[in-house]
Amino acid sequence: MDLKTSINNLRQKVRTFFSTFPWKNLFTFLFFLLLSFIFWLMLYSQRHVEGTYRIPLKYTNIPEDIVFDEPLPEYIEIRVTDNGYQIFKYDLSKKDSIEINISEFRENNIDAIQGNRLIQLIRTQLAPTTELLSYSPAIISLSASKLESKKLPVVFDGEITTAGGNLVIDSITFIPETVTAYASKKQLAQLNQAITEYTVFENLKATSQFKVKIKKIEGIKFVPQEIDILIHIKEYTEKNFEIPITCSNLPKNLDVKFFPSHINVTFSVTLEEYNTITPEDFEIDFDYHELKSNQEGKIEVKLTKSPPAILNPRLSPSIVEFLFEKKE
Questions:
Q1: pLDDT-derived band at 43, boundaries 50, 70, 90
Q2: pTM score, whole prediction
Q3: Residue-range domain boundaries for the chain
Q4: I need a surface site. Which of 2, 115, 249, 283 has the fewest CB within 10 A?
Q5: Which CATH number fits domain 238-326: 1.10.540.10, 1.10.8.60, 2.170.120.30, 2.60.40.1930?
């Protein structure tokens, strides 16, 4: 049997199934099922039903220079009763937050929300017909302590890597450069900087700006808790020169020979600065008195002059030999 014949047979069986299926009985069943659901819904909506819900709490206008003596609850749990229809609406709807304006309560010298004041806040989220049976917590404590403040410089904790041919230039920039720490006088005395959370930035190819959080310390509040970090990236390339070794303050009757007499200096430089760097910008110079006191005849090579635009200078060889000769 070929594929075409198999498909035709399958189509014929499907047509036969749907033509002989008792659709009338199915529709009758579905109609009575829907009718039963409607009657159940009508009866349910007329009954009084209980429900338990959590309402989120949102705190606004919190003064920066205070810390609460007790943690503020994130939600309040309520038990209510109402007709089934209203309870059904509560089950389906997303609960709006109860907003608590901290500054307003503190201005009125209220250090706890309880009793009728708390019930009124809860009822803002309930229908007029709903009866509030219970709620928890029964008291929201707003008791707080005044804090000292201190401005602290931000220090980055983490790793920064760049794509090939790119390097970080200058120091990274924080926006803002300082944050304010609020804590007890004793805690602030031991704090000299605000450290970021350990963060890794990888494969950076251009100057980039990111958000970083200040690392939390128990009992200390940082404002702001998140800052921007600006990482300056430029594309670099390598360049090298042969630089002669010189000696200053050499007596007139002496000469000095270095082996080798020239040093290969390899360094990284931005593409913009590449053509501006010349061998004259470098110098490797030893002082005669430094060489005179050296008994080994070998000395480490260091750049005594180099342009500020270069990075990672490498000298080869790093050690040279020298020999004094008398002039005739």
A1: low
A2: 0.52
A3: 46-145, 147-231, 238-326
A4: 2
A5: 2.170.120.30
